[in-house]
Amino acid sequence: MKKHYQILILFCLILMSGCQQNHYEKEISEETLLSQSITLDENKEKEELTHTEEKIENEATSEDTEELIDIDTEDNVVYLTFDDGPNLATSTILEVLQEYDAEATFFLMEPLMREYPQLVQNILDENHAIGLHGVTHNKDKFYESEQSALNEMLQGQETLKDLTGVHTNLIRTPYGSIPYLTESYRELFQENNFKIWDWNVDSSDWSLTGQQYVDSVINQIEKLDQANITPIILLHDTAETAEHLPTLLTYLKNNHFTMKKLTDQLKPYQFSCHERCYRLNSGQ
Ligand SMILES: [Zn+2]
User: Fold this and answer.
1) Which residue from 68, 79, 108, 199 has the fewest beta carbons nearer than 10 Å?
2) In this predicted model, what pLDDT tens digit does every residue of 179-191 receive, in sequence order?
């Protein structure tokens, strides 16, 4: 009899511990479920947030690209750009351009705009575009800080507006945007609606003779043409460049190129930093 009680008690104990274990397991699994659902909720929230962020980003970029034209989609177009004017050579350049029914863009120096206001007006009257090239053309001054670079362009913008009533956002920084125009400079220009233009054909007209620069430019245009890239040609307002410009424009006419001016509607062509940019004063 005693033995039977013992077995019964033992049986009850086993049952009870089984129940407890079940309960314990249930508790754990509920906790796991709860924590899983929290994680799910968190993930969902995170996902929604990422989606919203992505959406905002997409909207911003699609807005930018939607209204800006990619110049490489244009066939047989070249963009002639002249830096460092206006000066006495500008008049000759304007005459040649008119003769060949060519449009161009002039990136002007602020002090020279004040010195030759009539030339600035002539450029506009003959249906060319004006961009800004700063005030000092001195790398140590222009690239000293984000603000100094911006200020030079703002000063040029204001002078052009005062002289002609025309507002421009087109800029080319002295010596081009590589290497001193780091991302923070570019961002500040973008915040101020400026459009930075570099070039993909360097005429080297400041170092080569007249015929040499023309040959070099033609050579580069032919290569870009094969790759369906629209040429943006860097030239300067000099007497030598003006003198040999008819040879270049004859080639362009004969090869059915249209010479157009840069506009606000075009997506600017810029050298990209790709780790090639550094602050002017970074070594100090
Ligand atoms: Zn220059």
Assistant:
1) 68
2) 999 999 999 999 9
> 177 and 95 share a domain?
yes
Cα 71 to ligand 1 centroid, rounded to whole Å: 23
Look up the CATH number of the domain holding residue 149.
Answer: 3.20.20.370
Query: Does 280 reside within a domain?
Result: no
Ligand 1 centroid from CA 175, angstroms: 6
Domain count, the chain: 2
Structure tokens at 176: 């081009």
Q: What pLDDT does 238 receive? A: 98
Summarize pLDDT for 133-158 with one digit per residue, the tens: 999 999 999 999 999 999 999 999 99
Please give the distance, rounded to the nearest whole angstrom, from the Cα atom of residue 215 to the centre of ligand 1: 22
CA of 133 to the centre of ligand 1 (A): 7
Residue 86 CB contacts under 8 Å (≥ 6 apart), including other chains: 106, 108, 112, 113, 116, 119, 120, 123, 237
How many whole angstroms from 124 Cα to the centroid of ligand 1?
20
* Domain ranges, residue 42: 1-67
- For the cut 80, the answer to whether the pLDDT of residue 40 exceeds it is no
Q: Residue 166 C-alpha to ligand 1 middle, in angstroms?
A: 22
Angle at 264 between CA 262 and CA 175, to 5 degrees: 55
Are 94 and 150 part of one and the same domain? yes
Q: What is the crossing angle of helices 146-164 and 183-191, to 10°?
A: 30
How far apart CA 82 and CA 279 sit, in angstroms, is: 27
Q: Answer yes or no: do 141 and 105 share one domain.
A: yes
CA atoms within 13 A on the CB side of 151: 9
Per the prediction, the chain carries an average pLDDT of 85
| Residue 112 and residue 46 in one domain | no
pLDDT score of 77 more than 60: yes
What pTM does this model have?
0.77
- Distance from residue 93's CA to the centre of ligand 1 (Å): 17
Same domain, 36 and 77: no
